[in-house]
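lol ok so funny story. i was supposed to be doing the assay writeup but got distracted and ended up predicting the structure for this chain instead. priorities right. anyway since i did it might as well share w the group, maybe its usefull for someone
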Amino acid sequence: MVNERFVMSNVQSARTGAKAPAAPPLPVVIKATVAALVGLLLLAGVTRLTGLALFALPFAATAGLVASAPAAPFAQPRSILLGHASAAALALAITALTGPSLWTAAVAAALSTAPMLLLRAPHPPAGATAALIGLTAPAPIYLLTPVLTASAVVIIGGVILGRILPGHRYPVYWR
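and the output, tada:
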């Protein structure tokens, strides 16, 4: 697959050299852009239809990762679900104890790294989920909607696109 070979060659060059990675081939750019557009439109559409706050920045970032790096470990369903869920649960607990603030957001985002790594489910946008919760102190139901709902929408969109777009395999693994 062109995308996986391109990513792996850039990872290898990043480990050994001091140069920025090579520009991706145009077909990779087109596929990633189409995948991002479809994923974000799906999030926006479900948000519009249901009224749920699914189109929050962490979930838009998740959709972007699934579109642009579908083979990356942090873009796999396990990392998305467990990353967002663990970060949200931790942030909800911290915010319940300390109240919402910029400091709470910073602590929640930083501490969310630990459960993600312990669960073998790193997902960088989940840190933004924790920060958002630390700033806004939503109700505990926030863990289900939008966190788990938005995660599921992004994953389902990625799976569908992985079946439709030639050379865009997603997911690479589930567990």
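The chain has a mean pLDDT of 91. The chain has eight helices and no strands.
back to the writeup now i swear
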